[in-house]
Every structure is written in C-alpha cells, then in structure tokens.
Design goal:
The complex is a heterodimer.
Chain A lengths: L1 H19 L3 E6 L15 H4 L14 H5 L5 E5 L14 H15 L20 E7 L1 H10 L11 E3 L5 E3 L2 H5 L2 E7 L7 H8 L4 H6 L8 H4 L21 E6 L24 H4 L15 E6 L2 E9 L10 E7 L3 H6 L7 E2 L13 H9 L1
Parallel strand pairs in A: 1-2, 1-3, 3-6, 6-7, 7-10
Antiparallel strand pairs in A: 4-5, 8-9, 10-11
Helix pairs in contact in A: 4-5
Chain B lengths: L1 H19 L2 H15 L8 H6 L3 H4 L14 H6 L6 H13 L16 H6 L4 E4 L5 E7 L3 E3 L3 E10 L10 E6 L2 E6 L2 E3 L4 E7 H5 L6 E9 L4 E10 L3 E11 L5 E9 L3 E11 L4 E11 L2 E9 L1 H7 L5 E10 L5 E2 L7 E2 L17
Parallel strand pairs in B: 3-10
Antiparallel strand pairs in B: 1-2, 2-4, 4-8, 5-6, 5-9, 7-8, 9-10, 11-12, 12-15, 13-14, 13-16, 16-17, 16-18
The chains are: A alpha/beta, B alpha+beta.
Chain lengths: 364, 356
C-alpha cells in the first residue's frame, strides 16, 4: 500500500513539475465580418478566420502554424461581427460573449472547436495571452478598460433594448498576461468613416472585409472620438496591451485603398489607430510611428508627433512592432518574413518574423 | 499537448520508481508536490533534486529544471529562467501597475492626463486623393449640454499650406438622418469657415441626447470628412462643496458633493495637480445614485502623491461627471480649482498597493 501511495505521489508530483513550466494558451479574438457565433461540425468561421484569405497570394496560410510552439495551446473565441447583425463592440452579443468565452477557456473547459493540432485545448493552469485582430482589438480595449472596479461600464454590456446586462469582464481579464493587437481598430478605421460618410469606393468595399454599409457595427468603428472604445473605458486597462501595426497595401490594389487613408496603413486601418496613438487616429503616421512635416511627400526634420509609449490614447498600451503586412496577411500569416521598421519603445523579439511569429518568439 | 506527454511520462516513471525507490527519497518528492499543490514556490534547483535521487537511477534520468511554481501568472513569469524581452517588459510594467490602486493612474505630463485626453478637441485633417488640398475641421468642444451653442470650424488649404476660399457644404446628422443643412461663414481675415449651432433652434424642441455628426464636403476639391460631438443630459452637477483630508491609511481623500436629478449610474474622473501645475495623477469612481445630494469620495494613494515629488497644496484641477448610458453622456469638463491644505510629502503613506 505504501508503495502504491508512493507511486501516486510521484506521478502527481511529476505532473505538477510539468505544470511548473506552464504552457502558453493563446486566446484568439477575431475581427469584423465573421459569423463567429456559429460552430457546427466543420463549419467553424471563428477558427477559419485565422486561415482564410481574401487574396490568392495568401491562400493556405495559417496564423496558427506560425504561432504555436510544441507546448502551446489555443482557444478560439467566436462572436457575431457580421454586417448583417451589425452589433457594436459594446453589445452583449460581442463584448459580453467574448468575455464569457474567455472565462470558459481559462477554466480549461475547451473552446468547442475541432483543432487540427492534437491536444491543443487550453488548461486552467496555462499562461494566458489574448491575440486580437482588427475589431477584436476594439473589443478587447472595451473589455479590458471596463474590467476594473470604478470603470464606467464595469462588467456591463448592452442588449438589443439598450438595457445594461451583466458581462464578466473582470473574470475574463483576471490572469491575462497581455493582450496582443494586430492591425487593431483601436482608434477605429478611416474605412468605416468613408463607408458611413458615403465616399468609399464600392469596388473596395466589396473586395475588402470591413463594412459594406454603415450598420451600427461599422458606425462604431469610425475614427471620431465619440465612437471610440477609448472614450468608453476607465482610467486603466486590466492587462497590458501590446500593439502591432501593419503598413502594406492590399495585393493588387496598392494605392487604391491606401490612397484614401491618411498616413501609413495596412490597406484598411490607419497606422495611428493600429498603434493606439493619442489624438486623431487618422493622423499621418509614418511606418516608424512618427509624424513629420513633409515637403513634396518627403518627411523632414524632427517628428512633430511620436507615437511612443508616452503618447498613447489608452492606458497600459505599448508599442510592439511595425511590420510590412496588410490587413489580410496580419490574420492569416500570409507573409512569412516581412520587413519591419523599428518603433521607439518597441520590442525586438521576433524581428523579421510575421506577427504570429513575433508573438511566438516573445512568449515562448 | 504538453499534458499528454507528462501523463505518459508520469505513469512510466511511477511504475519504475514503485519498485526501486526507498522511503527517504519520497520525502523530497512529497515536498515538491506539496509546493505545487499549494501554488507556492519551491526553492530547489535541478542539481539539488538530482542529489536526492539514488545513483542507480541517475544515469537514466533527465531532470528538467523545475521552475518555481506559483498560481499567479505574473509570478510564473518572474520565476522563469528564460525570460524574453516581452516577459521582462510585462514584469516591469506589472510592478508599476501594482504600485497604486487600479483606479489611480500617475502621469507626468498634462497631455497624458486621461481627463484632458477625453475632452481634447477632435481636430481632423483629410487630404484629397492627389494630396493637393487638405480639409481640417473641428468643434470647440466634444461634449455639450442640451442648451449649449456648438461652434464648428473648417479650413481648406492648398499644397503650400495656404488657406483658401472655396465652396463648403455641410449637413447636421443625427441617427443617420440629416436634420439640417448648415452654412459655414467665411472669415476672410483668418481664412476660416465657421458656424454656430443651437440645436434647440434647429429642432424646435429640446435636442435628444446622443452623438451628432456634421458632414463637411468641398465639391471643388472633392474632400469629405465629418466631426462628431455629444449632446448630454448628464442629470448630475457639482454643488461646489468639497472636503479633503489625509485619511487613516495615509491617502489623500476628497469628498465632492453632487446634485443628482434622476437615478442612474454615474462615472467620475478627476485629475490632481500641485498648485505649481505639476501633474500628480488621476482617480475614478462609479456609483449608482438616487435623486438628491450625495458626497462622492475621490481617493489618491499616498504613494502616488509621493512619486510626484511635489508638496502640497494640491489642486483638484479637472473633474468629469458622466451619466453612464450608451453613448456616455459626459458633462462639459469642470475646473473646480479646489485646493488642499499645504501637506508635506512625508505626511502621505509610502505603502505600495497590496491588492489582488
């Protein structure tokens, strides 16, 4: 009997030794235009978001292939971000749903998706990171910014009647080590401005994947301060936010989409918004995160604005990287080794890798 | 993925050790197990653990360095032996974050003041497609009361930065519906277009609270942009009565009295400066309040004040009151200029926040 107990003790202890080197669990929060509330057999839009592509150049690319190391896990969060439903980021169907799913993933309940990679469901003692793209970053700003007692919408989302309902933001953010944003609509997107103000090119609207009409979801992604999540949060975020920005136009339509956006952008979202800069999210930022005076399109002199860690529009927000990547490749890893531009105060771990590879290099 | 590997490894190891290990060896493993189970640290490195294992087993065993174990995520990072640049950054950031209660934020420059940022004018610039002309538009405030005047400004510049006179069309929009066409007057001396809006005159009624948009278009240069502002009915205001003291914990505590017109949830933000205008920090609170008068406590941690390096008196410089609806109905910024007594820095607590 004593030997049996001994064996059990040993087995358990070795198990705990394993958990001492906790696995990473990446909680994936997708962006706009995904029927993420659907999950039926092989129909898994929220999972497919990270391996679908709008451009043939990125076909068969998979964000998770670059992200996951041998000991890593992930959990997919799915919510309804379609134009048809038109839910703003503060709705129970968006922010509330995301928070509830994060809680479930952190409890080790699994995400309910069929992972191609065996044994990659998260467990309760993993190290938790949130990876968010596009509207997902706006969602996480609102959630994290209302997860601290004293915040304006502390643990509150809104239903279709406009009534406040309970949402577990604090529980969702508890224990999250960091939130990564990729091409995040932290300050909205000028694309949404143009859709709502009626001067976006129809061809681009149909080609791109962000907002075909000015429904409430798109309306609340305009760059006017009145709509921004930063205007609807408290003085602090519950977890630090590390921002990565892309500055490459969409393949095949270079100059068409980006030409309509101020400063550098990833084809759809201004770099100033992606990097969470203070002030106007459509300020003309260069790929080094600075704004300059220009003459004939050439920057000169010292920066007149530096989007460094002291000049963010949201608290606990930090520059991570500026990567030559468009909005599509950000979420599917379609460019494996993009070039990059150093950001003041940015991180060098993962330099030369795509956004997924950077997260992997910095967290593993 | 990792878990399956460990379960398999554990079973094999347990089976092997079942037959060969002596009781004195077990104590060490139990200690490790106990440490894990209680989520506390275990101060034993790989060499120490190896020294407790019988020699006859060592040649066939590989010991992976056992990290100190903790259930707190940040402690797990701290105990890693192979920290990345990001891990280091997160550990450092967390130390700063945990320095004060989460409702307190320290800032060193007034442009980082969260209250200032929320009320800063939203000036927007847009260029036409070939970058030969630019339109800049703004309003004098971002939040107005229902009876307030809203002033809109616009400037059109050529590529040399000179302000030009041109045609400007503008319309006022609420809930996706155009409610008025606006005429912007050109002020020749400034090269500035402007108009003054009193919403109640336009709608012939008290304007509905919410986000209003002014869509501006210059047909000749083909530039379009819009500004937005919020009409608020905050249902709360300061009475002008304040109290202040250093509380029993050594923190600076204000009490400000408010008059509530209608029960709701309300959000408060207030920034503290020294009277020499050196920033100290900001605090926040939210409460559900019934109609009537209430005293709202606003607390600034002693360490937050000490870190500013500025002795008193301190000034409650900016206060934001907001009714928590969607959208949030902030009252225009309030500058109470209420000053504290001339406290010395050493009167405040230097204790770090010890929350979760």
């Amino acid at each position: 009997m004593q030997k049996l107990l001994t064996s059990c003790a040993i087995a358990v202890s070795v198990l705990f030794a394993g958990s001492a080197m906790a696995d990473n669990c990446y909680i994936m929060v997708h962006g706009h235009g995904t029927q993420g509330n659907v999950k039926s057999g092989s129909n898994q839009p929220a999972l497919d978001y990270w391996r679908d592509s709008h451009f043939d150049e990125y076909k068969n690319s998979d964000f998770l292939a670059y992200l996951l190391g041998p000991n890593d896990n992930y959990g997919i969060v799915g919510y309804d971000s379609t134009d048809e439903s038109g839910y703003p980021y503060w709705r129970n169907e968006t922010a509330g749903e995301i928070a509830r799913q994060i809680v479930a993933i952190k409890q080790g309940n699994g995400d309910g998706y069929n992972h191609d990679q065996a044994g990659t469901q998260c467990s309760a003692n993993d190290d938790f990171w949130v990876v968010s793209h596009s509207q997902g970053a706006q969602q996480m700003t609102f959630i994290s910014g209302n997860a601290i007692s004293g915040s304006p919408y502390y643990n509150v989302a809104f239903n279709s009647a406009g009534s406040a309902v309970s949402a577990p933001y604090q529980s969702a953010m508890n224990g999250i080590l960091g939130v990564f944003t990729l091409g995040g609509a932290i300050g909205g997107t000028e694309g949404a401005d143009r859709v709502c103000n009626g001067n976006w090119l129809d061809a681009l609207v149909n080609m791109a994947f962000l907002g075909k009409d000015c429904n409430d979801s798109v309306k609340w992604m305009q760059t006017n301060d009145s709509y921004l999540a930063r205007n609807l949060i408290g003085s602090n975020l519950a977890a630090p936010m590390y921002v990565m920005g892309g500055y490459k136009s969409f393949p095949g339509i270079e100059g068409a989409s980006a030409g309509f956006l101020n400063g550098e952008d990833d084809g759809y979202i201004n770099l100033a918004s992606q990097l969470g800069c203070a002030g106007s999210p459509k300020r003309s930022l260069w790929d080094d995160g600075n704004q300059y005076k220009t003459f004939l399109g050439i920057a000169y002199g010292s920066p007149k604005f530096r989007c460094n860690n002291s000049n963010k529009g949201t608290p606990r927000t930090y520059s991570m990287a500026s990567v030559y990547t468009d909005h599509d490749a950000e979420r599917n890893g379609g460019i494996s080794s993009p070039s990059y531009t150093n950001l003041e105060g940015g991180l060098s771990c993962g330099n030369g890798k795509n956004m997924a590879g950077r997260i992997a290099a910095c967290t593993q | 993925m990792h878990r399956i590997y460990w379960i398999g490894f554990s079973i094999l190891t347990a089976g092997l050790l079942f037959w060969v290990w002596s009781p004195q060896d077990i104590q060490v493993i139990e200690a490790v197990n106990h440490g894990s189970g209680t989520a506390q640290t275990v101060d034993m490195n790989a060499d120490e653990r190896l020294s407790h294992i019988p020699d006859r087993l060592k040649s066939n065993m590989q010991i992976t360095p056992l990290e100190k174990v903790s259930s707190l995520p940040i402690e797990k990072l701290e105990n890693r032996s192979d920290k990345t640049e990001l891990h280091q950054a997160i550990i450092s950031e967390n130390k700063q974050f945990k320095r004060y209660p989460p409702e307190n934020v320290r800032f060193e420059s007034s442009h980082q003041d969260p209250v200032s940022q929320r009320y800063a004018v939203d000036e927007r610039s847009t260029a036409n497609a070939d970058q030969t002309f630019g339109l800049t538009i703004w309003s004098d405030e971002k939040f107005y009361l229902q009876e307030d005047d809203v002033q809109i400004f616009a400037v059109v510049q050529n590529k040399d930065g000179q302000r030009i006179q041109t045609q400007i069309d503008a319309q006022l929009i609420f809930n996706n519906q155009t409610i008025a066409a606006l005429q912007l007057e050109y002020i020749n001396t400034d090269g500035l277009y402007t108009t003054n809006i009193r919403l109640s005159d336009i709608t012939n009624t008290t304007p509905t609270p919410g986000i209003y948009k002014v869509l501006v278009h210059t047909p000749k240069e083909n530039i379009t942009d819009a500004i937005t502002f919020t009409i608020s009915q905050p249902d709360i205001q300061l009475t002008g009565e304040f109290k202040e003291r250093i509380n029993d914990e050594g923190h600076l505590e204000f009490q400000m009295e408010v008059q509530v017109e209608r029960e709701n949830n309300f959000y408060f933000q207030a920034s503290l400066y020294s009277t020499t205008n050196t920033p100290v920090g900001t605090t926040q609170a939210s409460h559900r309040l019934a109609k009537g008068k209430h005293w709202i406590p606003l607390t600034y941690a002693g360490l937050l004040i000490r870190d500013s390096g500025e002795s008193g008196p301190y000034q409650l410089k900016q206060v934001s009151l907001a009714k928590v609806t969607m959208p949030m109905q902030r009252a225009p910024a309030i500058y109470p200029e209420f000053e504290t007594a001339a406290y010395g820095l050493d009167e405040f607590s230097d204790a770090q926040f010890e929350g979760p």
